[in-house]
Amino acid sequence: MNSVNPFSIKFLGAAGTVTGSKFLLETEGKKILIDCGLFQGLKHLRELNWKDFPIPASDVDCVLLTHAHLDHIGYLPRLVKQGFKGTVYCTEPTADLAEIVLKDSAKIQEEEAENANLFGYTKHTPALPLYELKDVENTLLLINACPLDEFINLENGIRFRFRGNAHIPGAAFIELDIANRRILFSGDLGRSGDPMLQTPEKPDRADFVIVESTYGDKNHPTDSTEEILLRIIQRSLQNHGPLLVPSFTVDRAQDFMYLIWKLKQENKIPDIPVYLDSPMGIDVSKLFLKYPECLKIGTDVFTEVFKSTRMVTSIEETRHLAKNKHPKIIIAGSGMMNGGRILTYLENQLENPNATIIIPGFQAAGTRGRTLSEGGTEIKIHGNYYKVKASVEHIHTMSSHAGQDEIISWLSAIKDKPKQVFIVHGEPQSASALRLKIKDTLGWQCTIPQLMDSFNLD
Question: What domains can be seen in the chain, in order of their start residue?
Fold first, then answer.
């Protein structure tokens, strides 16, 4: 391929927002999609999920996935439903997680459509799921799992490789080589201080960089997560009520399980019952044992953590536990409270002044978690409004996203100044703050693309 041939990138998601990651590269007739995520949060963003893909889905040659969070993979079955028949490349843990996450997503969407039709809280007749389980099954047939750190060759001299970035098991940043130029996609950058996951790798060169900015405007507190969680649990026990932990079920739920187990082992808290109420979270926890190379702690330790947590498998048990106001810890999805079994607990416990709810990390605009984190006094669930009388506690130290200084440190490993840097996957304030920090620290000019913006890379 001629090294001066231009190619382009189009920002189909995660531009001006943290969700819906989709970046379309076009070169010499090849169309490569980096990530294929769902929009979440605000209604006008969620409505974008229902629009057809901007080009015929059958024209996309392949999809490269950075990791298996829904805002990076959740649109895949929709793309397949519209005619995509190419290959989906990802790491081995991401392939396993994708099956769990996408099946859970389809199930939730089918259930929500059913409930909306049953209880009448829909303007659509009938309400339909975005996609169904059969669409997920068709998607899984296209996935090709790849090892870390090994280049995979595509057509026309294009090659790529995945490198570990410690956001969740299997998460990676992508180095994509086209026409003697390297395009670097950060994915969601993890943190070196993660209690369970290995330290992120760093890139050494890039001509073009697409970097996330979820926490581009701030650094994470250095306080001990264990001490913060200890104080929250102690206050919850003094209130004689349940402690609800709305949790991202890929990685964050396992962090909570581990830290609570550790506090018990150190005799800092009594043997209070701990429940994991998420079918997906249970499957993900088992997956941690399958890929010990992703972990800092031994599988023997995590096996004990897993054994010490009571697994809730039926919705009947969920309903029973949700009504019970006795002290216990419930870890349930989803982390932003926009779906999943946590909603049943909120319906029963939001108005209980003895209950405690933890805000476990970043909450996207438009989610129930964002409303709670900003001091909202009323939450709407399944068409009904509930007063917030429970205590709300925040843990700001557990994020699986790199903070501003960590992003700068990661970028600083690049030896020569890139030709262009695009800041994505952040709300406007975060992206703007990171742009200024990169300019002041590294001397690089950056672009903050908006949704559907397109740029030639040459």
Answer: 7-218+400-457 (3.60.15.10), 225-394 (3.40.50.10890)
